[in-house]
Specification:
The structure is a homotetramer. By secondary structure, chain A is α/β, with parallel strands linked by helices. Chain A contains six helices and seven strands; from the N terminus they run E-H-E-H-E-H-E-H-E-H-E-H-E. A seven-stranded parallel sheet of chain A has the order 3-2-1-4-5-6-7, sandwiched between helices. In chain A, helix 1 crosses helix 6 (201-213), helix 3 runs parallel beside helix 4 and helix 4 packs parallel to helix 5. Chain A is globular, with a radius of gyration of 17 Å. The two termini of chain A are 33 Å apart. The interface between A and D is large, with 45 and 45 residues.
Chain lengths: 232, 232, 232, 232
């Protein structure tokens, strides 16, 4: 079964998950655009999958408008949009730096809105498109000492739900994937005594593609993935 | 990507969803067994996909034991088990027939336990297997005038969650799929003024196969599917 | 603020929670009836609060019908009904005794339906009444090795939700209280190294009375209570 | 049973709910402080219940710091803090003004953090205090055309959960009350054909006081209230 889409934008493209997503989308013949605050680290992946790269701070309105205007002129407006960025800071509520809490809300949630708004404006006339937001365990459970991340991720989930209820009947699929665990990467591997305790980014990306591929007759809005050994 | 399993059992095989599941599993090379209270209606599908059929009232312990013992002797114990049966009766709480309420609990939930128990006993030594329970909107929301269905489907969800927490770390994938809407069938089509308001069983089955195919590194426990036009 | 009700029935009256409920209701001038499988242990409490006692296995239709018929003839049909009974058995899914699983469903959930049905029939003509179901952590989370309890408590929650949606607009308040932790009793005290880790039954009962006392303009359906030191 | 607290701060004091809260707290002998962006409308209530008033934009760090510093010097730091402010704007995602979305996050959620942080710093040394956040239907369900309100209220719920998990074991009660419906006021009454469809602020306030009064042995974190006729 084909994906049914030809162009994709991955925002927050620096993460390992994004590399897996980019490769799997490209393997389906999708033309991929990668956006991140800095494009420096994207060069290798971009070359590998033939992707265009864009510098964009997703929490800034002007940056996001510029990104979509560049896409319009270049590779074309994206039929698939995946929003990954988040910012977290930890600590007791009494000790948190308010500026960091605000940044959490801006990067994790407000940026999701900015990107989604631009995407939706381009998808509505075609009555087609798929927007996927990347959630975390903190999207549904506010952990102690981690209020800012919970605030940002809860807010992103509220955005995703509201968009799904508005946009599904308009032909635009809005999904929220809850990644319940740490994602394995070159820098971050599970400790020797906890094998298999992290998520393989390729396995997560396969579930994203499964959701993107769904028929409108049976769309998922929320999907959670976790390693088999994870407590939940 | 292959499914990674060679045998499957579909319980409650009379429904349209089961036909779609059976066809898609067979197309992946899986040997399918179909169980239902009456096997009469299964003959056509069984022939089409080369499946064995078994008569079994899933809410009766003896029937379920017999079913698995027959599978052991014949097609082999199932690596994939899908549990569909449910029984519903509607009405104000004051008017419900207690025997019908009990039947709802027995068919929708207790039968799920009986089947899962037999399956798990055979999967544990292999540290492998996948059990999927079919849920409904009523699994997470108790609707007015529909207490018996809510009781049965909530209970089934409790079973699925408890099993996932016990069995994921033992290599057995337990999933609960919430089908949020009516399933299209020959007998039951959407009204002319509500096109696309029902779920296509082939589309649902595709999501079941997506879950069955998942890598243990990123298993979903709960997945919901609904038509794009559905309110939720 | 008065409770606004004059008669109450507590089912599953053997537990420490029920003694606290009985005392607090009696202190508000409510005439209390206590029902339990065996009335032997109820004599002291009954004398203390001037309650009538009734032997009743709440999972048996005939017992429940007899109970309400006795109440009709004696202390009067209850305006407040509290349903506490549950039955739990633990163990890996592969090892559970199916008869015990069935008993869990019958006592924890089906009995709740039987009692509620009789109560509702008597409350509907008066467009008034309050039914409270006692839930547990397992009402919303299926723990490993505890599938039967999860099945029973999830089912009871489904019943409570469905009843609330049907009966709130008919003037009958239906509440579900999730007790997230162990309840302190004479037989069961917290270990020395975990002070304050259990719930005081008087404190729980105070929250029940708070819910019973609510104005229809701001009814709670679901309330959770847990000790301040409890992880959740 | 006494409340156990002597001082309270109500933030977002302009709303009808706050007047009810102020009166009921004052009736329990609690010294109340009222904070709102503008104190103009607070004069009547302040006189009636002997409250001090403070001008404060809760979404601005400096304002909130000033508020608590003024409280420290004057009526004393609050043992009870209630956070009500929210800002909402409606419309399709494509048409929303990003500045309004940001304001929703700042007023509904970030302000809650700023106020809570100041309160917690003063409560921690006493190992005592109660913080109540006012939620809405949108705290748990993202409605179509109402993404900004969902984002703000979801984020506030994430903050409340995270704080409860951190601070309950430190003796500080953190509660989140979901008001599922419109609140009746002089300006806003239910239409003639939908009597009783709004919440009476006095009835809501009674539930807030019930939560504030709870023993640490059985604290509620989340409570929902809705009118008896409300669909949910």
């Amino acid at each position: 079964m084909t994906l049914g889409f030809k162009t994709a934008l991955i925002v927050g493209a620096g993460a390992g998950l994004s590399a897996s997503l980019g490769r799997q989308l490209a393997a389906e013949g999708v033309k991929v655009a990668l956006a991140a605050r800095s494009t420096e680290d994207l060069a290798g992946l971009a070359r590998e999958i033939g992707a265009a790269t864009f510098a964009c701070d997703a929490s800034r309105q002007r940056d996001v408008e510029q990104l979509f205007s560049d896409l319009d002129k270049g590779p074309g407006s994206p039929e698939i949009v995946i929003y990954n960025p988040s910012y977290r800071t930890r600590g007791p509520v009494a000790d948190l730096d308010p500026a960091e809490v605000e940044k959490s809300l801006m990067v994790s949630a407000f940026g999701g809105f900015l990107v989604a708004q631009q995407a939706v404006r381009r998808m509505l006339p075609k009555k087609s498109g798929c927007i996927v937001f990347t959630g975390a365990s903190a999207s549904v459970k506010g952990y102690a000492q981690s209020a800012p991340f919970a605030m940002g991720k809860f807010a992103l989930r509220g955005l995703a739900q509201s968009m799904a209820r508005e946009l599904h009947p308009k032909g635009i699929h809005v999904a929220h994937v809850i990644i319940d665990g740490g994602i394995r990467s070159e820098r971050r591997q599970e400790p020797a005594d906890k094998p298999a305790s992290m998520l393989d980014p390729d396995a997560i990306a396969a579930s994203y593609l499964g959701v993107i591929r769904q028929s409108p007759s049976a769309w998922s809005h929320e999907v959670e993935v976790r390693p088999w050994v994870e407590n939940f």
